[in-house]
Amino acid sequence: MFGVVVVGIGIAGRVRIRDLLAPLPSSAPEKMSVKGFISRRTLGDEQGVKQISMEEAVEREDIQVAMVCTENTFHEEHIRRFLEAGKHVCVEYPMTLNYKAAAELHDLAQQKGLILHEEHIELFTPDFKQLKKDVAGKTLEDGSLHFTGGPLKTGFGFLAFSGIARLTWLVDLFGELSVSGAAMVEDKEKNYTKMTVQLQTEKQKSIIWVEERGPNLPRVKNINFRFDSCSMTELPNAPREPVGLFMQDLVLFGQKLLGQLPPAQLQAEQKRVLHCLQLAERIQQLSETTA
To answer: Could you read off the pLDDT tens digit of each residue along the chain, which spans 291 residues?
Structure first.
């Protein structure tokens, strides 16, 4: 059994505790047992799980795994502390707010023989799974992905990092990308931000990624992908699945802990994660240059 501590009790942290307490039958998470949670607030118990300190979690031998669900700005600090203490780590995206730190943390995990897993539940959504099937075998000519949503809270980082789920979508669909341009529009008084990024595939096909956030903006993804044989302007209307997104991610993480996944799959995932963080950092650099 792997003893687990959950760090951060927001929406994700509470869902993590819920799923650990009631894992999917006959799945890898049945080998995981939640031992406590950490929060800056004094909360007592959460779903019957006791609150413990960071110091206790790091020192306890019956805790082998940390699930980091804090604000993005704290991810790097928490990951490093748990890895140095010999604990496996699952962290909500983005792993860090810069590429160099993420690469260092992956190296540290590898040196210590530990699993460092970055959650990407957006790859488990039914609409994305269907979209990936629909895109398979088609040749992209150009495309766009426009995301809108409410204002970001403090601590989530630059838009390219806080919105790395969309970037991960594009890389998973079309392979490694490069950044040819990026710009940011910001109105602090209105709490409005809009980032526009020009991306290119390895075959020099253009993809525009827009991340737009502000009051009263609906949480929506709009796509427009033009292929050699057809165009896609709407996400597939795929039926809801019986297993939740966080549970699917927990199963994947559990399989890594138990050594049930082939090395090639782990290497490909790590390469994608680091590639997306490197793209996000380049986008931030270009956006700040043109601001």
So the answer is: 999 999 999 999 999 999 999 999 999 999 999 999 999 998 889 999 999 999 999 999 999 999 999 999 999 999 999 999 999 999 999 999 999 999 999 999 999 999 999 999 999 999 999 999 999 999 999 999 999 999 988 889 999 999 999 999 999 999 999 999 999 999 999 999 999 999 999 999 999 999 999 999 999 999 999 999 999 999 999 999 999 999 999 999 999 999 999 999 999 999 999 999 999 999 999 998 875
Alpha-carbon gap, residue 288 to 250, rounded angstroms = 36
Q: Could you give the C-alpha distances from 201 to 8, 139, 171, in angstroms and in order?
A: 37, 11, 9
| Helix locations, the chain, DSSP H | 11-21, 54-59, 75-84, 99-112, 126-135, 159-162, 164-174, 245-257, 263-290
149-171 burial code (b ≥16 CB/10 A, e <16): beebeeebbbbbbbbbbbbbbbb
Rounded to 5°, the CA angle 213-219-223 comes to 95
**In which element (H, E) is residue 138 found?**
none
Question: Among residues 51, 57, 123, which one has the least CA distance to residue 88?
Answer: 57
Query: Taking the CB of residue 198, how many other CB atoms lie within 10 A of it?
Result: 16
The letter for the amino acid at 183 is A
Q: For the whole prediction, is pTM greater than 0.85?
A: yes
Cα distance between residue 78 and residue 231, in whole Å: 43
d(CA 70, CA 122): 18
CA distances from 103 to 100, 108, 274 (A): 5, 9, 7
